[in-house]
Amino acid sequence: MKILVVGANGQIGRHLVSFIQENDSLEAKAMIRKQEQASFFENLGAETVVADLEQDTEAIAKAAEGVDAIVFVAGSGPHTGKDKTIMVDLDGAVKTVEAAKIAGVKRFIMISSFDTTRAAIQDASSSFAPYVAAKHYADEWLKRTDLDYTIIHPGRLTNDKGTKKVEAATEVERNEIPREDVASVIVASLENEKTIGKEFQVVTGAKSIKDAIDII
């Protein structure tokens, strides 16, 4: 299975491409914004493609040519304004979903925020609410398609070493999770068809990633 990783140069994205390239049954195509970012992925033996989420949908669809699945791990980051949140986390995500349709790619995994319910938008701080709202509507857009989607809602992200132990369910108690483990959860979800049509929260826990994902 060949996977387009959208947001490959982000922290989760780099882990994800590395894990995909270590997996004999998977192959990564890293979507990056600048050619200068390519060397990291080329050293892993991964194909790269330069495209920007602020380009039109057709440019993203062209980047998705020849792949079997798309994983959206892009994000505007905590230090950008509301404009980037809209352009990347909402518009960029929706355009990537539409690009998947154009390119004929059925499998789609979305990395979302931990809680994107309407209540979460209302409860969020004024600075965080636009991000939660953007993720909410991107998730809803994906769920209304006929794509084979999975939506993953990770807890608070850390740069700790992955434990390979998680708790995953429709709702779990709020906790943190290493970015490295989120990448491993994505790989496990790609390999498990039971995750199609599902969305779940995931945090550090006691189960192996494979076992936790298998009972979603």
TrEMBL record:
Name under which the protein is recorded: Uncharacterized protein YbjT (DUF2867 family)
Ranges that cross the membrane: none
PANTHER family, alphabetized: FLAVIN REDUCTASE-RELATED, UPF0659 PROTEIN YMR090W
Organism: Virgibacillus alimentarius
Top-level taxon of origin: Bacteria
Family annotation (Pfam families): NAD_binding_10 (PF13460)
Record domain NAD(P)-binding: where: 7-192
Family annotation (CDD domains): SDR_a5
